[in-house]
Every structure is written in structure tokens, then in C-alpha cells.
Amino acid sequence: MKEHNHPHSKQIINRMSRIIGHAEAVKRMIEEGKECDEILIQISAVRSALNNVGKLILEDHINHCILEAVENNNKEPLEKLNKAIDKFVK
After folding, report:
1. 1 is a domain residue
2. How many CA atoms lie within 13 A of 74 on its CB side?
């Protein structure tokens, strides 16, 4: 499988590390018996952060992989992108 390196890779990795830490904090909140409304707010924040990372990955993919595929008249990456978008927005 071809390795993908994009301009935002380091930023995405950093964001994912923060998201993982945030998700672990939500787990601790549950273990500690925190109020449900507090937990739901934090889960919403994690979901939003994941969506933002997904958008950044999509932007990188379009600006690099898809642009290159279009230049080379390669339709396979476009088909894969359509399938990935379908799953991402569910």
C-alpha cells in the first residue's frame, strides 16, 4: 500500500493525540460518576474534534491525491473517495 504524506500530517497526528486524551478523560468522568450532562458535553466536544480532523484529512486528500488522479486521468481514487465520504457522513 502506498504511503500517504500530506502537508497537514503532523497537525493531524497532534490533534488525534489530543482527541485520544480527551476521550480518556471522558472515560474517567464516567468511572468517577460525573453528571451525565457534563459527560455528554465532553462527548460532543470529542465528536466535533474528530469531525474536524476528518475534514482536514479530506481537504488534504482532495488537494493532493485527487488532484493528482485527475491530472493522470485515474478514476479509481475518485471512486474510493466517494465510498469514504459515504461512510464518513453516516
Report:
1. no
2. 11
Q: Residue 18: give its domain's CATH number.
A: 1.20.58.1000
Domain, as residue range, for 51: 9-88
Number of domains in the chain: 1
CA dihedral 61, 63, 66, 69 (to 10 degrees): -130
pTM, entire model: 0.79
Tens place of pLDDT for every residue, the chain, 90 residues? Answer: 566 677 888 999 999 999 999 999 999 999 999 999 999 999 999 999 999 999 999 888 888 888 888 889 988 888 988 998 888 887
Q: Are 39 and 30 in contact (CB under 8 A)?
A: yes
